[in-house]
Amino acid sequence: MFSNRFEYFAPKSLEEALALLSTHRDDAKLLAGGQSLLSLMKLRLANPKVLIDLGRIADLDYLRVDGDKIAIGARVTYAQIKESELLRNKCPLLPKTAAVVGDAQVRNRGTIGGSLAHADPHGDMPAAALALEAELKAVGPKSARWIKAEDFFVTMFSTALAPDEILTEIRVPTSDNTQSVYLKAARRPSDFAMAGVALRLRLDPEQSCEQITVGITGVADRPYRAFSVEKALRGQKLSEKIIEEAAARVTDGVDVAEDIHASKKFRSHLARLYTGRAIRAAM
Amino acid sequence: MHKIKLRINGNEIEHEVDARLLLVHYIREKARLTGTHVGCDTGNCGACTVIFNGKAVKSCMTLAAQADGAQIITIEGLAKNGLHPIQKAFMEKFAIQCGYCTPGMIMSAYGLLTANPSPDEAEIREALEGNLCMCTGYQQIIEAIAHAADVMRGAGKKK
Amino acid sequence: MMKLDEILVTRNWVGKPVQRQEDLRFVKGEGSYVDDLDMDCHQAAILRSPHAHARIKKIDVSKALALKGVIAVLTGQEAAGQTKPISARAITRPATQYVMAVDKVRYVGEPVAAVAAEDRYIAEDALELIEIDYEALPPVVKIEDALKPDAPLVFEEAGSNVLMHDLMEHGNFAEACQEADLILKETFNVHRYSSTPLEPWAIIADYQKGSDAFLVWANDQQHGRSITNVCNTLGIPTHKLRLMVPDSGGGFGIKLALWPYIVILSLLAKKANKPVKWIQTRREHLMAGSHAPDANVEIELALKKDGRLLAVGIKDIQNDGSFVHTAGIYGLIKFATMVGCYNIKATKAELLSVVTNKGPTVQNRGVGKPTMIFVLERMVDLAAKKLGLDPSEIRFRNFVKPEQMPYTTPSGEIYESGDYPACLRKALELVGYEELKRRRDAERKNGKYLGIGISAGVEPGTSNLGYYYTARGTPEYTGNAEGAIVSMDYDGNVNVLLGSADTGQGHATTTAQVIADMLAITPDNVSMNSHVDSLISPFLGHSGVYSNKFNDVDLGAVVMATKKIRDKMFRLAAHMLELDVNQLKLKDGKICSAKDEAKAVSFKEIASLAYKKIVFLPEGEEPGLKEIAYYRNPIAKLPNRKDFNIQLTHANSVHIAVVEVDVQSGMIEFLKYGIVHDCGRQINPGIVEGMAIGSTVHGVGASLLEDFVYNEDGQLLATTFMDYMKPLAMSVPKFELAHMESPCPYTLLGTKAVGEGGSLPSLAAIANAVEDALAPFGVKVTSLPITPEKVVRAVTESKII
Hints:
The structure holds three protein chains of three kinds. Chain A has twelve helices and 14 strands. Chain A has helices at residues 14-24, 37-42, 78-83, 85-90, 93-98, 104-109, 112-118, 124-131, 149-152, 227-233, 240-247, 264-282; strands spanning 7-9, 28-31, 50-53, 63-66, 69-73, 135-139, 144-148, 153-155, 158-159, 166-173, 179-185, 195-203, 209-217, 224-225. In chain A, the strands form four sheets. A five-stranded antiparallel beta sheet of chain A has the order 4-5-10-6-7. In chain A, strands 11-12-13-14 form a four-stranded antiparallel beta sheet. In chain A, strands 1-3-2 form a three-stranded parallel beta sheet, covered by helices on one side. In chain A, helix 10 (227-233) runs antiparallel to helix 11 (240-247) and helix 11 runs antiparallel to helix 12. Chain B is of the alpha+beta class. Chain B is built from five helices and five strands, in the order E-E-H-E-E-E-H-H-H-H. In chain B, helix 2 (85-92) packs across helix 5. Chain C is of the alpha+beta class. Chain C has 21 helices and 29 strands. In chain C, the strands form seven sheets. In chain C, strands 3-5-1-12-9-10-11-22 form an eight-stranded mixed beta sheet. A five-stranded mixed beta sheet of chain C has the order 7-15-14-13-8, with helices on both faces. Chain C has a four-stranded mixed beta sheet with strand order 18-27-28-29, sandwiched between helices. Chain C starts with a helix and ends with a helix. Chains B and C meet through helix 2, helix 3, helix 4 and helix 5 of B and helix 2 and helix 19 of C.
């Protein structure tokens, strides 16, 4: 309940924030909504010496169309995503996912950038970002680059961001006739997922699978794209048999996690089950 | 130390605070408003819920330093001209037993009804996802919020 | 005993849902919980063992003491040098334990040192600077392991991890088994859970140098006993501790175990020159704030093939963790509830209390009765299945009938009143049982699995203290009682002080309603300060808020004290009006002539005579209008192994839960939940309904969500509210309630318990419903909690939850 001491900075510009980050590097953590980080700090499980609050930087919470993409500032909150008319129309997977993150108070403060950068292996947003093939803008002191969602989540609480980079924007495609679903296996709706499946699916006029992306969370040490599932579905007519076989591939190539909420075996089972259900729901 | 200046229940206050001081501790100890409570360590129980720049927020998951320039409403700020309809409704519907979750519940309800003046039962239950009550089993709280919503709509109150 | 019509002269308030007077301060955020009290305090933090079982080789606090802002540090060694060991109650082997660990630690979270500092943040920083050398010892965590002959001993001096082992038999068990057509045996496991009041433990201790005495504010549930415990432990006379209990954010029994921390804080306060405050964090609460113990219960049911139950036997092995004060307490309370609502003539109980390196246990809501009713009601369901009887039918065939009331169970518990068959009938009607069964059967064909679970529970209240000594011999407390001071003030209003505090039950409002109808006034004229101050409150050793005693002895004391006031008021009024007392009556805040209401004196005038114009008092009458009464439950027997009543009142209820189980994911959803509840005469139905629902939700949490999971090293894995999952508004159904009222002949107002209420039958109702839903898969529920993983494993492989 009482964190360790730390130095606190509230830079007014991105440049100032980047400069602070360059100076303090691994001693520093970035603060956005704080709904994940502060919890860890209060339990003294995270003890950054420096906290850089991104809350005062202008123009980090925009939500706008940019060609055939939507650009979302890193500091856009779950609540804003959930309520956004633009996203509901053009990228419904994000509001659907945001709606089941935490609770109302958490959604009012927690941000999409914070969620992705925190990279909690049970976080909901990462699954959606993966299914959307989102592009994440990493701004460093000298340059900016785009990181694909599938390359972003490295391991538990660890991303491809360099110690001196800040995630400033997330770009997602507009919904181009895909159906999207986020299903979460959780004991209570506000809990972390024991298995979470975010899925985008498009069928061709013959009802074959034309496009499929699947983002999984809660299952392994990081959120991941279930490429094996996608491969098993792409180009196929989605019969029950195909769906089951594809869903069974969902844990291919990952080490399934085990904790007090679900054993390895049960978690794998839930991942398969919810993948199958997500596919059917999107059809 | 960080200087912060903010408005709580319409009153401007300023203090120098330690970076690690949580907003809930600031409200309770520096602003001496003890209606906002602490019930857990990890932002799950909602007893610390306040309205922060118009939105329901857990003050234990916010640093006091982040509240510089903010407008905060705590439970003490609700009864402007007599009790707020939500407060009255809680009393009428037996939505209170030990009283510890009550301020947080009321502030969450306030947040809900500000955004959604006619919630159905499922929406009320969902709005309380971040508020734990150990005494009531929630039923009378839900009835109270539904009743408050009726009263507030009936009196022609706007958002 | 007084009749109700003698007690209540009007019926305007008792039985009505009067809005609670307590609520105004709570809705405004003006409650005064311990942490709200405006006092300039130091703040304490407690260093706790990271090991489940280890020797303390060395402890060095010098760096902590040197930290700027630290006022004092206290080690376990120091504390032991200034205190006696914690008193044990039910265990029969020696087990020395101090308020903080001395030479070894016995559970993760056991206090080893305490720090007082200028603020809590600094105190926590100081904890990290205390250096302790531990030598890890092999921990013993599970019951089975604790019982092994070569098991590590939690208390070496006890020579065993079984600290209590008792065997009792009532009626002729062997004969009943011989008569039986069928004997069913089963073993159940109930896990550790807790009611986790939202406000954790909170203590402020102030040492008064001048008088060598302590002032303590604490949200203690049983101050009558705590004062004794704390003072005996500190070795000080009891008048040297003034214990005050302000508003308390929920208790549920969990705040019965905080007194050792009052000792710790008092010792810290002695080292400081300001009061020292300690507010327990949630993590501390979950680790070391006490749980309901987990238990393995072997149960044996002897029955005839027509479904009649002849005998029930249990072997109950309880994992009491490592807190000697409460170890063993549960066994006898479970035992007292063994026959539930049924006419069972013979019982046998073998009760064991086992210590392990799990955390401390305390009398959590229900105190073993939830476990006992769970086990019994599960067995009754299993028996029904075996015999091809509907679960409702087997219960009808075995209920104690209303014409048998008052009914004495084989061990001596007296069920004073109640109509169990009518209660079940009403419940079946409430939920539409026949239609539900049809729907369940139809939905099975569609691959949807609905289940209906019935549970009938007797809900005892008012503990006859001292029962746990039946194994040790000499009781320190017996019976149950409470005190009340009722006074009329100068304005003619009534003020009340009760011997017990309140943790959310609406004592002040309930009391006001009773007194209003005793004096023909309104509840607005009656105010009760529900805080406790040992200097002022009329308490006894039994005083406190626990085992639902309020409805019985607290209200009894209120009634008797009010009666004393009323009698005196009549004597004074008679004197003022020059009439005889039996020519007078009460009306609207006055006492007037029964024949001519114009001849009257107001309460204010009577008070004026009593407090001010005292020379005009009648001969032999003392000034003042303030009376104290202590009231005890009239039927409490002395502890006697052949015939004792451990619980003195018995409410009852039937719960019917309807669930749908997703057999692929294991997730369980409620479709319906009906409760028919009989707590005797209800004073305030609004308050009663809240308690009936709230207590049932404790059972929902316990059955489906909450679990204190320990790993094999004795580490508690659920230390936050993320991992220890409490029911949310979205987790619970909309409850449908109906009530019956079978007044209690042994309480002054005919009231019975309601506080523990639904926490007793709900575990079985839910478990029975889940098993019913999974009937097509042949699954049997023998453990709690029922998690999705257990459901899926049972459906696909093991057939057992």
